[in-house]
Amino acid sequence: MRLLRLYAAVSTALLVALLVTAFSNGRSQDVFDEITVSRINVVDADGRTRVILAGGFPPRRAALGGLLFINEDGHEAGGLVYRGTRDQDGQIQAGAILTFDQYQNDQIVALQYDHSGNRKRQGLTIQERPDSMSDLVKEAYRAVETASSAAARDSLTRYYLARIPPQDLVSRRLFIGRDFSRASIVTLSDADGRPRLSLEVDSLGNASITFLDESGEPIRTITP
User: Fold this and answer.
1) Which residue in 30, 46, 70, 111 is a FRET match for 196, CA 20 to 30 A apart?
2) Is 187 helix (H, G, I), strand (E, B) or coil?
3) Tens digit of pLDDT for each residue in 179-203?
């Protein structure tokens, strides 16, 4: 009888401990002062990855850290990524970009900082893309994405750009920011991405409004 009573007491204690642990784990959250991780996938209620937080996105964007946004269909929908270092000559090579992608396509809105040596540009870009990618554009993306080196990516990019019709590519419609010449500008372009109107204050403080023809040549400039 003593053994039975001991067995019953131990079993009851273990059952209570298990129940307390189960309910406690269901309600509590783990708190960490610091963690080290290469990548975190944030999922929704259905288990689909919606945000990727990572220190690199190989192979094509291995130098970029930040966030990638994923839509419900599993396609990339934009992101916030950055980089920054000095090259072998001590020149700054840095940048950051917040993008919003067209559905099953590439970026159409971008807030970007680009810094290479003594050349620096930052601003907001609005772009236009076809409603769907052509087969040749899809092929180009796959080829560039899987290229084995930066030189191979550049070669493939030139190859496909020479073969893809302009109407299948992106066209920049609006840029607002500071360009490489240190001018503050607003550039509006037509549906083919050709600048047609420019508002500018140059690095010396000179202001102007310029109208351009289809070839990009100024046809009228208004100054103070």
Assistant:
1) 111
2) strand
3) 999 999 999 999 989 999 999 999 9
In three-state secondary structure terms, 145 is helix
Dist CA 91 CA 118 (whole Å): 8
Rounded CA gap, 128 and 121, in Å?
21
- Give, in order, the Cα–Cα distances in Å from 124 to each of 53, 175, 187: 24, 6, 11
Domain boundaries, the chain: 1-31, 32-111, 130-169, 171-224
Bridge partners for 107 per DSSP: 101
**Per-residue pLDDT tens over the stretch 21-76:** 655 555 567 899 999 999 999 999 999 999 999 999 877 788 899 999 999 999 99
Q: Is the dihedral of CA 168, 174, 176, 177 positive or negative?
A: positive
SS3 147: coil
Are β-strands 49-54 and 65-70 bridged in parallel, bridged antiparallel, or unpaired?
A: antiparallel
Q: In terms of Cα–Cα distance, which of 218, 212, 164 is closest to 190?
A: 212
Nearest to 221 by CA among 205, 210, 207: 210
Is the pTM value of this prediction over 0.85? no
